[in-house]
Each structure stands twice: as C-alpha cells, then as structure tokens.
Amino acid sequence: MNNLLTRSVSCPYCGETIEVMIDCSVYEQSYIEDCQVCCRPINFAVTVHADDDVTVTVSHENE
Questions:
Q1: What pTM value is reported for the model?
Q2: Are the beta carbons of 10 and 16 closer than 8 angstroms?
Q3: Integer Cα distance of 5 and 61 in angstroms
C-alpha cells in the first residue's frame, strides 16, 4: 500500500468537506489538524487495518 492516502472528511465544526493526507505507515495514530475552512482544531483518530482498509474518525477538540 502507498504510505500516503487522500481522504475526504467532514469538519465537525463547520460541516465543510476537506481533503486530508493520511500517513498509512503508522497503523494507529491520533493527532490534531486545523480545518482548512474554519481553522478550528480537529481531532483525528486513524487506524490502518491488516487488509489495508483505513478508518478515519474526526471529532471536536474537547471530545
């Protein structure tokens, strides 16, 4: 699998769909990235499964 994957997610604050790059070389990760539209911090939880399926979950900063 390519180490970088582009995913579309919906900002939990403004609801806009944004595209983010996911680094698939790390199988479980969590980090904060600002929304490209409203600039508020989004929590990302990423899991790369054994079958190369990628789960991306986004939430508010304080969730």
A1: 0.85
A2: yes
A3: 23
Q: Which of 7-11, 14-18, 49-53, 57-61 has the lowest mean pLDDT?
A: 49-53
The residue with tokens 């790369």 is 48
- CA dihedral defined by 44, 8, 33, 52, rounded to 10 degrees? 50
Do 48 and 26 contact (CB within 8 A), yes or no?
yes
Tell me the CB-side half-sphere exposure of residue 4, using CA atoms within 13 A. 4
Section 37-43 average pLDDT: 97
Res 61: pLDDT: 83
**36's tokens:** 């490209």
Neighbours of 58 (CB within 10 A): 20
Give the integer Cα–Cα distance in Å for 56 and 48. 9
